[in-house]
Every structure is written in structure tokens, then in C-alpha cells.
Amino acid sequence: MKLKVKEEIFKLLENPNDSFIGDRRIYEGEILKDLVLKERFKAERHSLPLNYIFFEKLTPCMKIENIENLGGLMLENIRYEDILGYIPSVGFILLLFNTSKESAFIIKKRLIDSYQFQKISDSFNIKVIEEKDFALLNMFSD
User: What is the domain range of residue 101?
Assistant: First the structure.
């Protein structure tokens, strides 16, 4: 994912007119890094491929159930420093990874702030694939 895309997303996060609030550490991915490490350990313990990560509890106030219905997330070439962060005020996870396709994946809850979501999807040409209660979004940048 190109640095310019990250910078543009950070601008959205930092705009005081938007509803994004929270600890800067969360945006920078510190909490998610810890979460991914725990999930990777769990994957190893259950003999899953190292690049197979599934999320059960993201925060005490947000839980994604039946993630297996999405087939999990098969992500290649994961680098922890590429994780952008968690945006708690709108209830979705935004992960940026360096992959061969320069793609990012978002898992969102159904009850997301539609205005904020539309703003981001319009900015970054996000393709939405509906899957039961959640949408798996594949975002490509130019």
C-alpha cells in the first residue's frame, strides 16, 4: 500500500470535524499489533497456517462472531508495521498490509456510521462484498 494512501487516511482520522476519537496509540496500531501476535500464537497452537488470522474479540465492546463464515482472512506477507489501526468511534477495523496486490481489508459491523463509511469508500475506491452480517471490503489504490 502506498504511503500516500496511509497519509490520506490519517488526514481523515485527524480531522476534528469528523467523529473519529480515541487514543493515537490505537490509530498507530499498537493495540492491534498485540492482538495479531496473540492470534498468530493461537493459529500456531491449532496448526493453522501462519498467514491465517481470525479475530474473535477485537475489544470488549466489539465482537465479530462466526468469522469462519467469511472463510477467515488469508493474508500474505503480513508486516506488523503495516497495520494502520482500529477506529473505535465507527466500529470497524482498518488493516493495511503490503501484499502483491497492494490491497487492504476492512471488516465492518453492520451498524457503521454510513456517512463516515461513505466518505472513506468514496476516497479510496472500495469494493464491497456483502457476507451475512458483515462486509469484507477489498480496497485498491492507484
Answer: 3-140
